[in-house]
Design a protein that fits this description.
By secondary structure, this protein is of the alpha/beta class. It has helices at residues 13-19, 24-28, 61-78, 103-114, 128-141, 171-184, 198-213, 231-240, 254-264, 288-291, 312-328, 337-352, 357-364; strands at residues 47-54, 83-85, 88-98, 121-124, 145-147, 164-166, 189-194, 217-223, 245-249, 270-273, 295-299, 368-370, 375-377, 391-397, 400-403. α5 links the parallel β4 and β5.
Amino acid sequence: MATPVTGPSVVTRRGVLAAAASTLLLSACGRDGGREDAVARPTPGHELVIGATLELSGPGAALGVLQQRALAISAAALNEKGVAVGNLRRRVRVEVLDNRSDPRLAARQATELGRRNDVHALLGATLAETSMSVIGVAQKLRLPFVSLAFGDSIAVPLAQRAYVYKVTPDAGDVARRLAQLISSEGLRRVVVLAEDGLHGDSGVRAMRGALRTAEVGLASTVRLPAGRAGMARAAEQAVAAGADGVVVWATAPHSGAAARALRAAGHDGELFFDAGAVAEETLDRPNLPAVEGSYAVHPSSLGGSTIANSSAAGRAYRDLVSAYIRAHGAYRGFAPYASDALLLISTAARLADSVDRGRLRAYLQNQVTDGLAGMYSFTPIRHSGMDRHSLGVYRVDGGAWNRLS
């Protein structure tokens, strides 16, 4: 088993920032300092192997399938040249497994992957519950794991998450933006309609504090059922509170179903979504009448308004969108968290000059990276790296997400 590398004598943020000047995104786009590098190719027989457990079926498929598609595109882009690790260029091989939205299956898959000597890191799990089931395995096997799920408890407490990292935004950052938006719209009282589970728990806690700070009243907190049964009753309870607006804190597909149920129950006021609601399914025809005019707080990739267009990240994002449209026909602005997880792990390997698990972990927790969804800044005391300034406010107008701020 690889020995973890720790301590400031091994890795410093200054060293990481200096080394990061030549970003891996440029390699993925086929550019190096503005010049083509036609000589570089992956070294035969040498790989960076990443296991991925994703919800390709079951309730989490609305998010998991999107991430699998983005991951395949980004892996292919990286493999045009490979990842420079020491004096080798390693081909990235991602082994994707369908956990069927089942936490127990996700844990078994993580165990099987983690016990293999040729697997260097793990990413995936778009649901909080499946991610939580992987955490114990990652810690026990000392396997770096980058989670794509929403829920603050994924990355804390830090003492039990030494090998665990999260690329989705923190609930507190999203809640503050939502509360500021609600206040600026002149709403005085809102209901929080939150899904059952860890993600909903994070949202309820965060919205209570954020609304209090923004001096907006919380009329009621209603929890959505785990399945579709009981959705109408939860919506009726929310509408009965007589608030000006409703914050739906739920991942797709529950978010779209909740919006439909709220409109059917008579809510004609404002609707607000957290970032977990943004998926292709949310803007599908059955949901569109209910979500038209609603708001969401989401990373900057939504609606095609990515990070500065002239940046390496902006170019890589446009390449991903073009490839996605060619392969799948349409791109609806979801955040490519899986692509960023792949970028983070690949960058860690490049900076570490190694695929050793302990060294990957050390360089992950000292990494500042401009990703496709937004900016990430990880530290030894913060494993939830999405920068709050990467978040924007969006509204559904004409069946599309449009950025307001």
